[in-house]
């Protein structure tokens, strides 16, 4: 066998990185999703509490609630997490967020997302970096 100068060992490590990163990022995604959910819940108006209770985190492979904002029901792909507002009982999340002709807007969804997004992104980046370092 010819000496490849460590190339085969390097290639083996490179192949292990994507799998390790996918596995390591799942807890960070979930934690980030729950932090975004908490930020939205703090900003949501609490007339009856139904809207706050309808804000949900959906993990990969599961379906978001029907009639949820944004986009309704769909299955969350791998390496993603979805935070939604609304369900079959609370179909008015978008009306609260954007307002109507008769009711002023009370934004909670997108401001909550923008407040917590950076911290969630940093958590995911740290998890990926750590997985790559440990895959060596």
Strand content: under 5%
Backbone CA Rg? 20 Å
Averaged pLDDT, please? 88
Intertermini distance: 24 Å
Question: Which stretches are poorly predicted, pLDDT < 50 over at least 5 residues?
Answer: none
Count of separate DSSP helical elements: 4
Q: Helix- and strand-based class?
A: mainly alpha
Number of domains: 1
* Largest sheet geometry: 2 strands, antiparallel
Cross-sheet strand order for the largest sheet: 1-2
Q: Tell me roughly what share of residues is in helical segments.
A: 40-55%
Organism: Salipiger mucosus DSM 16094
Protein name: Phage protein, HK97, gp10
Pfam family, one: HK97-gp10_like
InterPro entries: HK97-gp10_tail
Explain the layout of strands and helices.
Blueprint: H1 7-43, H2 50-54, E1 56-58, E2 82-84, H3 93-98, H4 109-134
Helix pairs in contact: 1-4
Describe the structure.
The chain has 136 residues and is mainly α. The chain has one domain. The chain is built from 4 helices and 2 strands. It has helices spanning 7-43, 50-54, 93-98, 109-134, and strands at 56-58, 82-84. A two-stranded antiparallel ribbon has the order 1-2. Helix 1 (7-43) runs antiparallel to helix 4. The protein starts with 6 loop residues before the first helix and ends with a helix. The model has no long low-confidence stretch (mean pLDDT 88).
Protein traits:
136 residues, mainly alpha
Could you give a short description of this structure?
This protein has about 140 residues and is mainly alpha-helical.
């Amino acid at each position: 066998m010819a000496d490849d100068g460590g190339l085969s060992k390097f290639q083996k490590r490179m192949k292990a990185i994507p799998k390790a990163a996918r596995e390591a990022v799942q807890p960070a995604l979930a934690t980030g999703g729950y932090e975004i959910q908490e930020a939205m819940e703090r900003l949501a108006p609490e007339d009856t509490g139904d809207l706050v209770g309808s804000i949900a985190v959906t993990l990969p492979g599961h379906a978001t609630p029907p009639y949820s904002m944004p986009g309704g029901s769909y299955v969350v792909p791998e390496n993603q997490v979805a935070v939604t507002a609304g369900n079959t009982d609370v179909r008015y999340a978008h009306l609260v967020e954007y307002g109507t002709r008769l009711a002023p807007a009370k934004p909670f969804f997108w401001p909550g997302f923008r407040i917590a997004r950076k911290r969630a992104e940093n958590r995911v980046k740290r998890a990926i970096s750590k997985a790559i370092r440990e895959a060596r």
